[in-house]
Structure formats: C-alpha cells, structure tokens
Amino acid sequence: MSTTEIDQVTIAQILMLLEEEREKALSPREWQHRIAGYGYAIKRTDHGEMVTTLPHGQEVCALPVQLSA
C-alpha cells in the first residue's frame, strides 16, 4: 500500500486518530501501544518516521513533526 493507493481524506483521518491518541497517552511508549491497537505503527526510515500498517509494515504516510515522539 502506498500513499497513491490511499486517498488524502483517509490519510487525514488516520493522522487525526494518531493525534487524538497521542493527546491521551502519558508517554510515547503508551502512544505506540495505543495505535498498535488500531493496526498502525511508527517506523523510523531513511526518509523520516513513517506511519505503517500492522502486521505487514506497509507505509501509509509520513509522520508529521508535531507527532514525533
């Protein structure tokens, strides 16, 4: 799955979910555990931190700097 296969509205919804969960979490570790429950993970790559799917690890989009842990 690449960003061309996911429409921009869906990406915006995913990022909004991640932001809401980040606000609820007490630590970056808890946040990553919370988003794993929704089927997402954060992966560090050569081109920055990426939102990926679980369990396949396919990149969805870049993680915005303001959400970086």
From TrEMBL:
Determine the domain of life of the protein's source: Bacteria
Q: What is this protein called?
A: Uncharacterized protein
Q: Which organism is it from?
A: Marinovum algicola
